[in-house]
Amino acid sequence: MHLVFINQYYPPDGAPTGIALAAVVEELAVQGHEVTVICAEGGYAGMRHKTERHKTQEGEVEGLNVEGRKSDGDSPRGGPAAPDELGRPRPSDPIILRIRATRFGRGTFFGKLLDYLSFYLGVAWQLAVMLPKPDRIVALTTPPYLSLLARVMSKLRGADHALWVMDIYPDVMVAHGILQQNSLAHRALSWLARWGMSGKRCAAVLTLGPDMAERLAKRCIGESTGARHLVFWVPLWSAGNETTDNLAVIERRHEMGWGDDELVVMYSGNMGLGHRFGEILEVGGQLSEGRGRFVFFGGGKRRGEIAEFIEKHPNAPVELHDYVPMEILATHLRSADVHLVSLDVEWTGMMLPSKLHGIFTAGRPVIFMGNENSSIGRWVSQSGGGWVIAPGDVNGLECAIHEARDPKVREARGLAAKSFAEANFKRQINVRRVADILVC
Questions:
Q1: What is the arithmetic mean of pLDDT over 296-310?
Q2: Residue 157: closest CA among 192, 176, 131, 175
Q3: Is the omega angle on the peptide bond into residue 132 within 30 degrees of 0, that is, cis?
Q4: Which of 113, 225, 231 is nearest to 164 (CA)?
Q5: What per-residue confidence (pLDDT) applies to 42?
Q6: Less packed terminus of the chain by CB within 10 Å, N or C?
Q7: Phi, psi (5° rounding) for residue 340?
Q8: Angle in degrees, 0-180, between the axes of helices 16-30 and 427-438, rounded to the nearest 10
């Protein structure tokens, strides 16, 4: 098949959606499919990427595979790559088309809207003139409502379409406070969302966890839509190098100035609007020096809350750092004794923070503050790899921290977490499952 993926981000961008997509693109190329990715030239967090380009029969396009190797021209569009010197099949390099959209950024609503609109127009043009034509157009959900483009353009090009849902719209807009529930705008956008993932040419809708699949099945998929597919879910996987050693972990802790016997409670990843920090900071501020510390790594719209707390409480054992490089992610995650994950109840089933997968793979327990019926809540409870705390339950969080001080408890829960990750978050298995669903 000739598969075309649409997503705003793609490596070398560091956005999780692009990283996950790259792994699936690699798997599909190995299976012998021809893959084109349409993404934005402006990178994650405002970066911009310049890459090597080469000529094909259709013109000048980017020809880098997911590991950043330049295409050698062995795989012209329209057929698989020539076998290697041992006669084994060799994957075709995917074609990466980067759209030159406007870059007003996230500062204003209308600026973001113009960025989205220019990206949509660029994607529509590429799909309209693409040769050979796509067999299937697969839309992700950054920016929102790419499913509409996928459905319209698949009709025009005689293809079908599929959707890989990582954020559910317009639900997240209601949770953001941008839309009011059951308002005219909300009802209109809900109808558009249903329309984008329906129709006889919609081959599959795939999402990240059971709560998201249940929400989509309940709200967006039904006999009235005319869809011929089911809603599938496949968890993501750890994005970093999973191999590390204890010496590297010890060196990392010493480098950060953390004591060997000090309880390090870590929050690592996006600090977005869907996460909770009030209770976490309240408990972190009560920790005594030498008995433990809360450390935050990452960025996002709520990072300022943590910075403000540290400024107001300079003696609290609370630290704030930037994202860590991908090459040290596994060591970084193992350098903590226990990890924090949070999700507001209002966001249950709308998104699924991917940080849990890497933490469990690293063999570290998790304190999750959120809905026990969310995907993360279910996985933490089922695995025995941590604690599930109801939002607002400061006493419950304090009790979990107290239990986590016991090294034997941490070890037991960490082993349970790692065992669950081996069974459910294995990269090779889940990437293949995603690929198989998207070409079914």
A1: 94
A2: 131
A3: yes
A4: 231
A5: 66
A6: C
A7: -110, 135
A8: 80
Residue closest to 132 by CA, chosen among 208, 41, 56: 56
Find out whether 214 and 168 touch, Cβ atoms under 8 Å. no
Identify the weakest region by mean pLDDT among 100-104, 137-141, 230-234. Answer: 100-104
Residues 244 and 323: beta-carbon distance below 8 Å: no
Tokens of 153: 């353009």
Q: What is the pTM of this model?
A: 0.83
Alpha-carbon dihedral of residues 30, 239, 14, 71, nearest 10 degrees?
A: -20
CA–CA distance, 394 with 279 (Å, rounded to integer):
6
pLDDT grade for 82, boundaries at 50, 70 and 90: low
* Assigned token pair, 58: 């259709």
What residue type is 135 in one-letter code? D
Q: With beta carbons less than 8 A apart as the criterion, state whether 11 and 146 touch.
A: no
3-state SS track over the chain: CEEEEECCCCCCCCCHHHHHHHHHHHHHHHCCCEEEEEEECECHHHCECCCCEEEECCEEEECECCCCCECCCCCCCCCCCCCCCCCCCCCCCCEEEEECCCCCCCCCHHHHHHHHHHHHHHHHHHHHHCCCCCCEEEECCCCCCHHHHHHHHHHHHCCEEEEECCECCCHHHHHHCCCCCCCHHHHHHHHHHHHHCCCCCEEEEEECCHHHHHHHHHHCCCHHHCCCCCEEECCCCCCCCCCCCHHHHHHHHHHHCCCCCCEEEEEECCCCCCCCCHHHHHHHCCCCCCCEEEEEECCCCCHHHHHHHHHHCCCCCEEEECCCCHHHHHHHHHCCCEEEEECCHHHCCCECCCHHHHHHHCCCCEEEECCCCCHHHHHHHHHCCEEEECCCCHHHHHHHHHHHCCHHHHHHHHHHHHHHHHHHCCHHHHHHHHHHHHCC
Amino acid present at 351: M
Question: Which token pair is 328?
Answer: 């040290």
pLDDT value of residue 289: 64
For residue 55 the two structure tokens come to 């000529």
Distance between CA atoms of residues 337 and 335, nearest Å:
7
Written as one letter, the residue type at 320 is L
